[in-house]
Amino acid sequence: MRIARTCTLLLTMACLALGARAQNSARNSPDEPAKPSPTNTAADTAKPSDAAPAKAAAPVAATREEVEQLRMEVAELKAELHRLLEAKAQPAPAAAPAAASAETTVAGGPATAVISQPAAPPASPADSPDAEPISLVQPTQAAAQKGGLPVSAGWNGEHFFIQSPDGQFKIQPYGYVQTDYRSYDGDGAPPNSFTVRRARFGFQGNYGDHWQYGILTDVASSTGATVRDVYLNFKYNDAFQIQGGQFKEPFAQEVVAGVTNIDFVERGLQSLLYPSAGSAFRSPGLVIHGDLDGGVVQYWAGIFNGKGYTGVSNTTSVPETVGRLRFYPFRKHKGSFFEAFALGGSLSYSYARGLSNEVTPSMTLPDGAYTFFPQFPINGNVWRYEGEFTFLHGPWGFRDEYVQAMFDRTGVGTLEFGGLGFQNLPTVRFRAWNSSATYLLTGERRPENGTPRVKHPVFGPETPGSSGRGWGAFELGFRYSGLEGNEPGIFFNNIYTPELVPGYDFKTDQFSVGLNWYLNYWVRYQTTVDVDRLKDPSTIGAVPQTYLVFEQRIQFRF
Known about the structure:
Elements: H1 2-27, H2 42-45, H3 64-89, E1 101-107, E2 112-118, H4 137-145, E3 152-155, E4 160-163, E5 169-185, E6 193-207, E7 211-218, E8 226-237, E9 240-248, H5 253-256, E10 282-292, E11 297-304, E12 320-327, E13 340-352, E14 380-393, E15 396-414, E16 421-440, E17 473-487, E18 490-492, E19 499-501, E20 504-518, E21 523-534, E22 545-557
Helix pairs in contact: 1-3
């Protein structure tokens, strides 16, 4: 465009010069010499309507000198145009100033995204000055094909993103922050306190059509910035995918759900029996997973270290094996009352090593009120079973889980004088359950693993389905959760070292009432009141009582 404007200006100047020469030649021709006019007279400044009719002047030929002068000026104009075209053909310098940006609005998911792209580069020497202007999209694709930087960026309704123009490479920063205040009422309960429960930041995206990746760190971890997720997923198609790295073990519906989408401030008591519960349910491993028949059947089959985060080596050569199935029998019946009904189950097997000081999981309640059950040394097989179902309809949500865990104690004991020696002790068994119901008071639809689309957000950008400002969305929830632990006692009637192993068979349960306030799609305030009943304490010094726990959380995600 710059070349076209320059050429037009030069051609206009040439025409003006030619016109001036022609007029000067007419005035100073040999047939009628020009008369000097030292001053402007009234006739010179009079309007055409005031002047007397004049006789038309006869055409006058230019002299040879004037023609030669015009030819020289045209030649100079051509030379200048040629130099400008050559300058344009040279490659841009490496440290060229940043191009001006232009905003293009595109439909990028649930919400409209504004994508910033560089302005079009100058036309090539072969382009005609009269060519049509080039659109903003074409030059960015051409630049990408020549090795240019990705230029597409914006907001897709869920996350920020940067991607190549063809979408083959994408990176999305994401994260969330959860700040809590917790107060307790009960003898021996922790003090009231503020805490940053989670502050996680990371990136996810895709490379090509078959590769997805993710990395997530938690800067609020008690051990510093700890990597939670780091994985690479190969997706051949929806039915067959392979994921490797460190991530959640696919056991039970509540652990697979994102922590930003759980219905209460903390998970239920059954989560204490999940694999790798001490490391946010994550462990290095490999899993094959997929959706069959359009999502009617979902499956996971994986092997993991099962000992926690990356850096903690496996203690045996037996990996932790996890399998899970989930069925949506009415998924294809659109509009059916049971369309969002799902049921399934999980199975896990691992092997514990007593010489590595492995013990049963910690039985400290998720809300931190008290520790329900002591830990015991284990050695041998570890089995976990789980059953689940979900039913969603409109603003309603119902979820249920049942989990069993068994820990063998084969050859555990001590060689100290008066001890048991390496004897086989009874298996420690746990079982837990969790039933919950939620209802969106403001009428939004309850998604399975996600945030409701708020109809009237308090502030922030609009989301699909919203219609102006309001009080946000309110959700009421109720949950009943329980946990039982059984460690059978045994008496070794040895002649020299008789020994009694005391038994434990106790139960605790929890009633929870929660209120969730979605100020918009990304900001949520949660409050949960837990009534924790400790009927038969197994910890020495604990008194049977009821604890009251009041939890509040402000969550922001992006």
